[in-house]
């Protein structure tokens, strides 16, 4: 490892371009704006009769999902296909990992098949970062969600949804509601909103579902929906992450819905032009009323469509950042 390698953030190359996409923490505003602008340009590809561009022709993208997923896995597959890459999706429940093979050995085998990019979802926080540190240097790693740590492409598709519906982040009030404690989406959203200059970020939830250290995200904390939703422009509802929850954090789902469920009555507390978002999967009658999920303020399905464009942007930018780094390394070698 050279002295420059030691100082450089893992996910950026020597020119400050993306080469892995692991977390939004520490990424500069210009880079987030570039992802949003690139995704905007890819939305048009999805509206064409032939939904393909040749940017990743000859490249292999390997989706490795150790945790269930519907939206992230399929939209990464579509994104890679629309960029003309070859795509493999490893179903971990039927792979050799379930026969005792370590994560490390599985990845070494995939590397041997000459994959250029890995999209990884894992139940352990830090898994994508671990893989990026150990994978061979030419391979890009994209985090498809790791434990309760980060879900950076979800964070960016949420930002694209807000920008397309509200124009910009200045003067916006955004409320994130529910199980913040276990939510990688909430962490990625808070980081992105702060970096993009949103002046009023609110989190609303019971004390038992709020993590310590929320002040680092520059958010205001509310325990009451009436106060927290007053006049907001954007409401981001979260799923109760029961799979990550210890018992005793909630009296019952019914009690949670009574206090924190987004009903039509509560939506009326927000701005009349407020949008309602949810990363999915939604639990009707647990965190959101059906009439709200399917109503005119809901942009939940638009989020899924924008997710394809965001994932096309991230895949193409990381591939290009890897190629630039290879060239920079080659230039240095030739000089020595
Ligand atoms: N939003 C999200 O990550 O959904 P999936 O778990 O279906 O991928």
UniProtKB/TrEMBL annotation:
Residues involved in carbamoyl phosphate binding: 71-72, 121, 151, 154, 280-281
An example Gene Ontology biological process: 'de novo' UMP biosynthetic process
Domain of life assignment: Bacteria
The Aspartate/ornithine carbamoyltransferase Asp/Orn-binding domain, residue ranges: 171-317
Binding-site positions, L-aspartate: 99, 184, 239
Domain (Aspartate/ornithine carbamoyltransferase carbamoyl-P binding) ranges: 19-163
InterPro entries assigned: Asp/Orn_carbamoyltranf_P-bd, Asp/Orn_carbamoylTrfase, Asp/Orn_carbamoylTrfase_sf, Asp_carbamoyltransf, Asp_carbamoyltransf_Asp/Orn-bd
Pfam family name, one: OTCace_N
EC number per UniProt: 2.1.3.2
MF terms in GO: amino acid binding; aspartate carbamoyltransferase activity
Signal sequence, renumbered to the chain: none
A cellular component term, taken from the record's GO annotations: cytosol
Pathway(s) it belongs to: Pyrimidine metabolism; UMP biosynthesis via de novo pathway; (S)-dihydroorotate from bicarbonate: step 2/3
Keywords: Pyrimidine biosynthesis, Transferase
Catalytic activity: carbamoyl phosphate + L-aspartate = N-carbamoyl-L-aspartate + phosphate + H(+)
Entry-linked PROSITE patterns: CARBAMOYLTRANSFERASE
Function: Catalyzes the condensation of carbamoyl phosphate and aspartate to form carbamoyl aspartate and inorganic phosphate, the committed step in the de novo pyrimidine nucleotide biosynthesis pathway.
Family stated for the protein in its record: Belongs to the aspartate/ornithine carbamoyltransferase superfamily. ATCase family.
Subunit architecture: Heterododecamer (2C3:3R2) of six catalytic PyrB chains organized as two trimers (C3), and six regulatory PyrI chains organized as three dimers (R2).
UniProt name for this protein: Aspartate carbamoyltransferase
Organism: Azomonas macrocytogenes
Phylogenetic placement of the source organism: Bacteria, Pseudomonadati, Pseudomonadota, Gammaproteobacteria, Pseudomonadales
Gene: pyrB
């Amino acid at each position: 490892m050279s002295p420059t390698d030691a100082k450089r953030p893992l996910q950026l190359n020597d020119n400050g371009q993306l080469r892995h996409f692991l977390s939004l923490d520490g990424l500069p505003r210009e880079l987030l704006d570039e992802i949003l602008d690139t995704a905007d340009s890819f939305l048009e590809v999805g509206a064409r009769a032939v939904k393909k561009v040749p940017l990743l022709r000859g490249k292999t993208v390997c989706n490795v999902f150790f945790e269930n997923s519907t939206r992230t896995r399929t939209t990464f597959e579509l994104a890679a296909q629309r960029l003309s890459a070859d795509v493999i999706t490893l179903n971990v429940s039927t792979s050799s990992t379930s026969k005792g093979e370590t994560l490390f050995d599985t990845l070494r085998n995939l590397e041997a098949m000459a994959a250029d990019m890995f999209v990884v979802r894992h139940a352990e926080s830090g898994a994508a970062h671990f893989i990026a540190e150990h994978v061979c240097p030419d391979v890009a790693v994209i985090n498809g969600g790791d434990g309760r740590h980060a879900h950076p492409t979800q964070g960016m598709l949420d930002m694209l949804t807000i920008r397309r519906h509200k124009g910009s982040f200045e003067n916006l009030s955004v409320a994130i509601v529910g199980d913040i404690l276990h939510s990688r989406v909430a962490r990625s959203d808070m980081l992105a909103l702060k970096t993009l200059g949103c002046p009023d970020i609110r989190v609303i939830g019971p004390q038992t579902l709020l993590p310590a250290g929320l002040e680092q995200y520059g958010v205001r904390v509310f325990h009451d929906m009436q106060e927290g939703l007053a006049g907001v422009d954007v409401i981001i509802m979260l799923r109760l992450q029961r799979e990550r929850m210890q018992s005793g954090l909630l009296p019952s789902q019914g009690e949670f819905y009574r206090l924190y469920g987004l009903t039509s009555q509560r939506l009326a507390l927000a701005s009349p032009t407020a949008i309602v978002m949810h990363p999915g999967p939604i639990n009707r009658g647990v965190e959101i009323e059906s009439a709200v999920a399917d109503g005119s303020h809901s942009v939940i399905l638009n989020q899924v469509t924008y997710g394809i464009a965001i994932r096309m942007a991230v895949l193409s930018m990381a591939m290009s950042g890897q190629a630039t780094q290879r060239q920079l390394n080659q230039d240095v070698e030739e000089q020595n």
